[in-house]
Amino acid sequence: MKKSEKPILEYFEEFFQYLDLEKxxxxxxxxxxxxxxSRFKRWLQKSKNENLKPHEFSDKHVWDYRVYLSDQKNHxxxxxxxxxxxxxxxxxxxxxxxxxxxxxxxxxxxxVKLTKSDENDSVKFLTLEQIRRLxxxxxxxxxxxxxxxxxxxxLFSTGLRVSELVDLDCDQIAINNKTTELEVVVTGxxxxxxxxxxxxxxxxxxxxxxEIRNDDEKALFxxxxxxxxxxxxxxxxxxxxxxxxxxxxxxxxxxxxxxxxRHSYATDLLAQGVDLRAIQEFLGHKNIATTQVYTHITNKRxxxxxxxxxxxxxxxxxxxxxx
Length: 323
Hints:
2 domains, DNA polymerase, domain 1, hpI Integrase, Chain A, mainly alpha
């Protein structure tokens, strides 16, 4: 390993080129890393470490950065969650791995330990009854309602990430009056492709929505507010706001988000006995370890079912019967 004379800050541009050219990350993923590393950059500057070199970065610096993160606030003025802090630390790990790949002496990435998640950071999902209420919330007499219904049904039917949803185009959705099955190839994180499948409910919702479309827009889901010119493709923020609107209307947990529907999709499949490897493929996870988070949910549910229904809870010993 060689010791670099360049400060860590001067490697940022090269690091993002590395994510693009060698790791093959999408522009959206690169933006995410940029956003999370920007806080590390501010910490380096605030702590007078602008000239800190990779080999000088120590365990003490990691600790100081963790303390700095614990003091940060979100847009609501609340401390950022442990899960969010871990995102910042994962981005830092990736930077340290970049140094290792470049044979530059630095602190090993595994020295940056992630914060143990608490119960509030666990995967959130909706019950089938809650899903039913959410999917039934949009008004079918309005074009925005038909669009929103199609968005909700698509999210729950396919398990798509919200970024993958907004990237869908009309020419990917071949539907006519007789269509009962639909599968679409999408490109997700790391430019990995997979096939997603639409339920009859989702197909019907999409059919109803597309029947009222009389425009030439390429995007499957478009906005109806704002200027009629330019790209009208709906944004991820708009989808998040749509979810919030119907969550409030139906009285569902306020933290429900587009990703909650993805979690609900995966949890439902696992509860129905679908193999974890198959769910990994459905979700487009690179590593099975990412998918295994859902086993904690179903394990808890299975424990409750076993406790409630298994006869062994009430089975008396033979000697007890003779007493």
